[in-house]
Structure formats: C-alpha cells, structure tokens
Specification:
Order of helices and strands of chain B: HEEEHEHEHEEH
Radius of gyration of chain A: 31 Å
Strand content of chain A: under 5%
Largest interface: A-B, 18 and 20 residues
Largest sheet of chain A: none
Oligomer: heterodimer
Number of strands of chain A: 0
Shape of chain B: globular
Order of helices and strands of chain A: HHHHHH
Shape of chain A: elongated
Radius of gyration of chain B: 23 Å
Strand order of the largest sheet of chain B: 5-4-3-6-7
C-alpha cells in the first residue's frame, strides 16, 4: 500500500519535472531565435524585428514567413529588415521597402483593393443572405402548420382520455 | 414547377466550384508580379567577378539589348540551361550578362575567398560553356534583392535604353526562348536598330 503510494508520488513528480523541463526548453528556443546573429538597440526594436519577420512572407517558399524559412532569400531579407531597422526605419517603411521589390505578395496582410474586397465582403454577404432566407421561410410557413399540428395533438390527447 | 430554380442553385454553385478548381490546376503559385518591369535598373556599383578592379553601373547596360542572367555555381538549373545559353550566344549573337551571387558567401561572416569563387566559376564555365559577355558580382546580394530576385536562375530582358522589359523566373530552354523570351528579344533588337537608323540622318545632317 505504502510503496504504491510512494511510486505514485514519484511518478507525479517525474511528470511535472518533465513538463517544466519541456516548457523551459521551448522558452529558451523562442528567445534565442532572434539573438543568434543580431543585436538590437532596444527591446522595441527587437519586438519590431520579430513582428516583421513573422509578417513578411518568403517569396520563394510556399507559405512560410521569413522567420521560419531557411531559404537564402529569407536569410537575406532578415538581414535587410535588421539593417533597415538599425537605420531607424519604421515598421511600415520596412514593409513598403519589401513591397516595392516583391509586391503585395510579400506581406501576410493583403491590402483592400477591388479584387481583394470580396475576401471581407463575401462572408458577411453570405451570412446576410442566409439570414434573410431563413427569416423569410420562418415567417411564411409556420402558423397554419402549427395550428393543424396542435389540433391533431389535441385530438390524440382526447382519444387517449377516452 | 415553382421549385425548379431552387434545385438549380446547388448545381450552379457546384459548377462554379468546378470552374474555380479547374483553373487552379493550371495556376502557378510561384508566379509573382514583378515590380521592376518597365522600370530602369536599380542603382548599383558592383565589381566584375573575374577582374574586381572593373566596376559596373546600370549605365554599362545601356546601348544594347541585354539578357541579365542571375546565377551561381550552386544552382543546378543554371548548369542545365548554360549549354543552351551558350548556343544562343554563338548562333544568334545574344548579349547575355551574368549577375553572379554566391550562396556560401555570408556577407557578415564570410570566410570564402574571392579566388575560390572565381575558381569554381571557371570550372563550371569550362564544363558547360560560357554564355556571358561578362559577369557582375553581386557581393552582398543587395542588387538581387532590389530586383526582386527569389532564387536562380532568373532573367531580365533589358532594352537598349536600360529599361527592364521582362522578368523571367526559371531557366531559358528552347521552348521558353521560342515562345516567350526570343520574340521580345528580337523585337527589342529591331527597335534599337530603328532608333539608331533614325538618329543617323541627323548625325549626317550635322
């Protein structure tokens, strides 16, 4: 009895230690990712760098941001983002710089244009039309149906009573 | 009778979906709109790969229709297209200039020497043929970035006034040359000849 309780206690400790260890490892990875090569003037600059590399898309790889990608172009773009930030450029200026070279494709947030407008309008329009459809259908059919059903139910109840 | 249009709705939606997906079969996700088309070359001042004392600027690419070929020895497709490009140079007198960039040369932590790069290039050109009038060495890969290059090989067709008229991603083979790059190149060469012949009488009058 006591040994099993003991082993239970140990296994619990082992598990929690494992969880702590894993989370520590993950945390340290997250921190070192941006620091292996680049040194920043301030924490805000570092945050900008992390945000930008996550938001800019690698033009060569399929659907990867430049922080994730190991392609040479992604290396070069990270280096460029870094040097532009060091020059004191704002985040928007860096994005514009990349867009001027690689097009809207390079930014994960597409601009609203005549062609992309439907990405936002489409779902809203769909919900709106579906809602109209449902409301119209509801308001037309139920009353008489309901009345008939109630009458039927009443009749059945009456029958049961007898 | 009244229900017929309602039944048709899913069918129409399905057909639209089929058309959309069918078109998707032939779309190339790697194809990007080039931002440099119809613009002049971005400013640069870069050394010759073989003779580092010679520097090139966009001015050097004016006066003649040029195909600027972005390449490197590490690029397999470049090696594949090289014999054909050499053939184009020899048989049709196509003016091809290389924009060379090295993959292993990390600008910040580079340990590879220039002579090593030159040796690799010489080896490769002697094996597959040399299509280049000369090679511009994009040391820091900045010019490639300015041109919106995503990898190699890529080609820029530049007219005699130094304006980029086409950005072709991928290799140039017989099919691409016949259908896409060749016609434009010949048209631009003809244009530049016309420009020259138009300006000649003026010179004669003076």
């Amino acid at each position: 009895m006591s040994t099993s309780a003991l082993s239970k206690k140990y296994s619990f400790n082992f598990l929690s230690a494992l969880i702590v260890l894993l989370s520590v490892m993950l945390m340290s990875f997250d921190v070192s990712a941006a620091e292996d090569k680049f040194t920043f003037d301030s924490d805000t600059q570092r945050a900008s760098f992390l945000r930008l590399t996550a938001e800019l898309r690698c033009p060569m790889c399929q659907n990867q941001n430049i922080a994730d990608s190991d392609a040479m172009i992604a290396h070069d773009m990270r280096r460029k983002v870094y040097s532009l930030l060091k020059q004191g450029k704002s985040e928007q200026e860096v994005i514009d710089y990349m867009k001027a070279r690689y097009g809207d494709f390079v930014h994960y947030q597409p601009p609203v244009t005549a062609a992309t407008f439907w990405l936002w309008a489409g779902p809203v329009l769909f919900i709106f039309i579906a809602l109209l459809f449902v409301i119209r259908k509801r308001s037309v059919s139920p009353p008489e149906d309901m009345a008939a059903k109630l009458a039927k139910a009443d009749a059945m109840l009456e029958q049961e009573k007898e | 009778m009244k229900k017929a249009p309602l039944v048709a709705i899913p069918l129409v939606l399905f057909l639209l979906l089929v058309v959309f997906l069918f078109k998707g079969l032939f779309s190339d996700p790697r194809e990007l709109d080039s931002q440099v088309k119809d613009k002049t070359l971005p400013p640069f001042s870069l050394p010759d790969l073989m003779e580092p004392n010679t520097t090139y600027t966009p001015e050097d690419l004016k006066g003649q229709v040029t195909i600027l070929n972005v390449w490197g020895v590490w690029c397999v497709t470049c090696a594949v297209e090289m014999p054909y490009l050499t053939q184009l140079r020899n048989e049709q007198d196509v003016h091809i200039v290389g924009l060379y960039f090295d993959q292993d040369l990390d600008p910040d932590f580079g340990t590879k020497t220039l002579s090593r790069v030159q040796q690799e290039v010489t080896n490769m050109l002697s094996r597959y043929g040399n299509p280049y009038a000369y090679n511009i060495f994009d040391v820091y890969r900045d010019t490639s970035l300015d041109l919106g290059v995503t990898g190699a090989p890529e080609h820029f067709v530049i007219d005699a006034r130094g304006i980029i008229r086409m950005h072709h991603i991928g290799d140039i083979n017989e099919r691409v040359w016949r259908n896409k790059v060749g016609p434009l190149y010949r048209k631009l060469v003809a244009e530049s000849r016309n420009d020259v012949s138009e300006s000649l009488p003026e010179v004669a009058n003076e």
